[in-house]
Design a protein that fits this description.
single chain; mainly alpha; 3 helices; about 70% helix
Length: about 80
């Protein structure tokens, strides 16, 4: 069983600890933070575009329409 422990630590203390890490671990930490930011931004973006008016049938209809337009341009 895991137990969560809360520790009050400042940003400067964290930064000091990070600076002590080997370069490979800094890179790994950087990638993890980047993934977290991307996930957060993607979630916000998806929430903004969420709608009940859009369904798979509508999407497929639009995809086929665009495909036909592309085909028509390539084969005059």
């Amino acid at each position: 069983m895991k137990t969560a422990v809360k520790v009050d630590i400042s940003f400067d203390q964290i930064l000091s600890l990070v600076k002590q890490l080997p370069n490979q671990q800094k890179l790994r930490l950087s990638k993890e933070l980047e993934k977290e930011v991307i996930d957060s931004k993607l979630s916000r973006l998806l929430a903004k575009f969420k709608t009940n008016d859009l369904n798979l049938k509508t999407i497929n209809r639009e995809v086929e329409k665009v495909r036909q337009e592309i085909y028509d341009r390539q084969n005059p």
